[in-house]
# Entry
Amino acid sequence: MIEVQDLTKTYRLGSVDVLALRGVSFCIERGEVVAIMGQSGSGKSTLMNVLGCLDLPTSGQYFLDGQNIAGMNEDELAEIRNQKIGFVFQQFNLLPRLTVRRNVELPLFYADLNGGKPQNGGDHRADSILNAVGLGDRLNHRPTELSGGQQQRVAIARALVNEPALILADEPTGNLDSRTGEEIIQLLLGLNKERNLTLVIVTHDAAIASRAGRVIRLRDGLIESEKTYETLPTSH
# Structure
């Protein structure tokens, strides 16, 4: 699903070059759950941006589902993001004036589905996903009428509506209490099993990371260690 070969990323800050990634290589198989950990400045966010096709590497190769991302232009990257990747962030990034259903449908507009105007097909897909994440009775609510955990479920539904092969979750429980955060992790792991989704989670929380099948720890732009679990834990 993901193959990264000797990936580097350099940013120019004033007159200084900052090497955020220093030659990172790994593979992630379809259906795997992988956690990425590391202190601030370790390269986690940079790596997430590259994996999510939000940024291109300075050098090295990145293959997503067999496609070489490193040589793509902005339009091609946008198409890959919309077709293959779902994003879940610490901030829910929901539009407060739209209903839950319309928030979830937004990626369908960007995909120009149904001529850029989702009608019955878009509604059906959004409703189906919202039912799957336990919010079938909140379709016409606004985000401000929901709890934090419910808002994150809406964000997960939005990430799933285009049926991506890869979910990138960046600190998905960071704004939630421990009990609600556990519910969200359980939901993501359940979706991984049910839909064979590849799930990559960036987290500072070792308890969450231990729920993954593999943990990749970064330090100073390099892979410091990898830990693989023989069996994916179902609870913690």
In short: The chain is about 35% helix and 30% strand. Confidence is low (pLDDT under 50) at residues 113-120, 231-236. The domain at 32-44+82-228 is CATH 3.40.50.300 (Rossmann fold). The CA atoms of residues 13 and 19 lie 10 Å apart.
